[in-house]
Design brief:
With 468 residues, the protein is an alpha+beta fold. The chain is built from ten helices and 24 strands. Helix content is 30%, strand content 25%. Helix 2 packs across helix 4. The chain is globular and about 65 Å long.
Length: 468
Amino acid sequence: MRPLLLLTLMLVALVGAAPACAQSDGPDTIVRVAVTRDGDRWTADYQLALDRPAFAFAVSALMREGRRPWRPQGWTVQTPGVEIVRIGDYDVLRSRDGRPLPRRIRIALRPFSGDLEAEYSPFLVFSDGAVALFSEQFDLIPLDRAQAAADLPADLNGVEVAGGLTEVTWRDRAGPVLFRGHRVAEATAADAETYVLFGRAAVEETPDIATIVDPGLPAWLHDELEAFTPRIMAAYAARIGPRAGERPLVMVSWAGPTGGLSSMAGSVLDNLIVIDFEGEGVLSASDQVLELAHWFLAHEAAHFWLGSQGLRYEFARDAWITEGGADLMAVRGLAALDPARDPRARLQDSVDDCIDLSTRRGVASAGQRGEHRAYYACGAVFWLTLEAASGQDVFVLVRGLTADNPDGVLSRAEWLDRLDRASGDPALRADVERLLDQGADDPAVVIGRLFQRAGVPFDMIAGHPHLR
């Protein structure tokens, strides 16, 4: 991937207000897990409250590279007669003989660096031995039979599944863990939606942000994180309003100077930006790499207003709302910081990629194909159309949509309703829905029509829309 810029999913919860507390016992807690590091040995000890032959792992996204399951690389079941297999869209913990699973199951963990499709990385591995674990990777869904996992939808947003809570306890024999911004002897919670840090990594604090930075990270990247992130967030706050939550934490790991690579992968949860840098291409601050770093940080920070603590999508297939909107926010935010910056190249890339990725296939189903770039590219095209039709930039639009949706959820229908009100032209909605649901034989024509009717300045050259 180019000098590689990977923008993974962004979404929901960290850096805390209080020390970790255990959830109260009750009928809703059906699984308890103790995740323990003892030197180089990592284990997850499960206690099941239900007799079931199988449980599906709620977090079962594929690895971006090769679109393969990640648990075979990082998890090894040590309890006899139990295995982890892939069924449908899920990793499944099941008994080999179809009988109920043992109530106690031990799994050995091997943390590794790896980027998942539209999901938080299970592990962030730091060069000094510290490791951060994504809390929700341990959550289980009970199944009456293992094959029932094939009937579970890939997107569980808004889907009621049988079962209850998975309560996880994290402990490190070497000392405290960092949980929601606090060092504690151990942490216990369900639905924590955070990263738990094992190791001695220091928290560096400024008035604007706190950072946990891999000591191996190139010094210039460290400096840019501390200097640029507060600047771009201030630019967003000035246009949209203050972000929710306390001072954010930026957690940065370094996977090393891999040859031929410049990788920046990241995600956002409440009050937390998680970033994993890798590759020889980011060892020094060339103009190209600096541009990529600023773009990456601007996109990630935008999710504090659109995609994390601000507006969220309703279903995963609607990720174009948050990803495309964050892309356009990054374009406008960077231009505000540097008026000499020309936004057209970045937006033209979105137009070109959207044409490629919506040719005879719908944007809404892109995640099923592993084509998550469609959410970013076509989402930016749609937001650009809404900007022109409304005569308002993306910041004004996000501020208004936030006020109109106090539940914090911006559905596809609500976004399209806003386009209808702004344009008074139902043909715009029809064309956006066509690209979302089925794509087009020639998306260039559809996008050109969107731009023409909405008033986006462009030229049609050899059948292809080129932004002015």
